[in-house]
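Much of our argument rests on the idea that a fold can be written as discrete symbols. The amino acid sequence and the backbone structure tokens for this protein are reproduced below:

___
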Amino acid sequence: MTGPAQPGEPAPTTTVAKDRTAEATAQPSIDKLGKTLQRGAKISAIVLVVTQSISLIQTLAVARLLSPAEVGAFTAGSILANFLVTFSEGGLRAALIQREDDLEDAADTVFWVTLVNGVLMSGLAFAVSPLIGAFFGGDVAGAVCAATAAVLTIHALTNVPDGLMQRGFNFKRRMIVNPSTAVTFAGTAIALSALGFGVWGLVIALYASQIVTLVLTWWLAGWWPGRGRFNVALWREMARFALPLIASEFAQKGREFLEAGLTGRFLGQGPLGMYRYGRRIATLPGTAIIQIASYVLFPAFSRIAKDAGRLRRGFLRAMTALWVTALPAGALLVAIGEPLVVVALGEEWRGAGLVLMGMAAYGPGMALGSIGKEAIKGTGRSRLLNWITATSLVVTVIALFTLLPTLGLLGVGMAASAEAMAAGSLAIGIGMRVAGVRVRDALRVLLPVLVAGVVALVATSVLENGFFHSDQRPIIVGIGLLIVDVLVFAGLYLGLLRILSPSVSRELYAGVRSTIKRPRKKSGADAATPEPAPETVVEDAVDPITGRPTEAIPSRQAALDDAPTVVLIPSGAGRETAPEWAVAMTERLYAAPFASHGNGHGNGHRNGNGHTNGNGHSNGHGPGNGHGPNGHPPAYGRHAAAPHRPPGPGREDREGRHVSRAQPLRVMRGTPRDDG
């Protein structure tokens, strides 16, 4: 039995481990959620630029070292593992992130369930590997399938620690794990491909990167199984939430499985390799944007799901950020996709450029779908995902069997775009309904970006295909012309966006400045003096996107502080009373509730000493008459003083609270006093 540590001695190892586990499963605070999300988005953006750059370098290097047929054999062999990873996770990681209580038991339950699923899926992949080889008409594909089966078990071991880090807004996953994984895979793949390992160099690189991910994730999460207990009832409860998520992931992975399978079956392993690399380049910008959003938005929406105002504003701002970056990226691919691939990878990979052009709408569609899905999951209404899943499957099957036989690789890319846009449009529509976002507010964001992107696309396409012909030039000249294409596109897009929607343009510039701005270093005096905790978190008076006034959110510190605090509650639709929670909190903490009727007005003014010299009047009943001891306004009651309100049209609702069309309602609370 281990006793308590003596003074000056370190705590026992078991105590340290328990403390780290408790910290890993702690409930994240939402007091400073906005700053946390901004920091998380900034970290994710910077890290994803690094990881996607590494992935792009690896793609370019391996494409110069391996043939399309070798890359196609690896794609065919690993296709089953990519599909079965959905079932090894079982949607339970998302259920763990969304969960509010019994977190320790939930973490242990998810760990053991996903581990068993991972082992079963590995066994299944190994057993059916001969069928994979027969389907693609080659023994190499079957051997790769058998060799990559154990990756499913390794991945299953990362679900709980990774989910707990995401739930707690722990960005070490983004800062450390993802770059390390990308560097490991890229370095191993390039080195072994240069040494002549061929397709097996990619298999070894896959295992090396997964092992690095596993070790770093467990080390950084600080969680170990055993603190909680496996609970069957808890498993069933989370499984009900996770079932629609499994179906959604099944649709996504099934679509990728169908695309790759039909391409390899009917076009051959060489075109399958082109499909893989064309798809990878096409999804680089979209994947970066979506990963930034999903890692931050899902836990954020889960925390603010019960606050309608914050959920609505968060949804609109997330939609603005993703749409304003994803759409121009997709439009640019249409303009320069094929010459970009030829210049970067070589003439033998021209087919990948067709896939790239066909998938131009994939990124914007996935961006819309990501916002909608995260809002749906965050509010706990995961069953609504079934509609998106069904739409995705139907559109995929129809588009593939219609476009692939006639257009080949271009048809495969177009089918992926059609599915993404159909499912994304439905997801954003459902997400808007869940978040309470009006259609006109969404169109105010979407339409100007769409018009600016299309005009820039047409102009850049004419410049490239009519004059430059970058894919027919020497490589250095081709790269220079492609850079000119990008600069022309960016200039036209940003300029038109500035004209069509100044508010969205300002939001974009503000996001860029926030990302690249370096924090100010504190001086010694500043560092020695801690900043006081803010009493009230007051957001912008006017939303920069919708132009509507916003609500002010009181912090927990304000609710507990005894000092007088003013809580501003601006009108959200031109007129509305103070929310029930604000009045209830004021009455519960500072005075007993009482009835009040009549026309209450408060036109009091403060002199230079902070006292009230005005004459607030009330024709109703109750002590809230605008007067207090020593000339102070009363600090409690339903008529709690409304200082500095200019005269204007107003009225009383049925509960006696003042409603102003011109000015926001102010609720002031302060230290309770006995007025006799």
Notes: Residues 1-17, 521-546, 550-579, 585-676 have pLDDT under 50 and may be disordered. The first helix runs from residue 13 to 24.
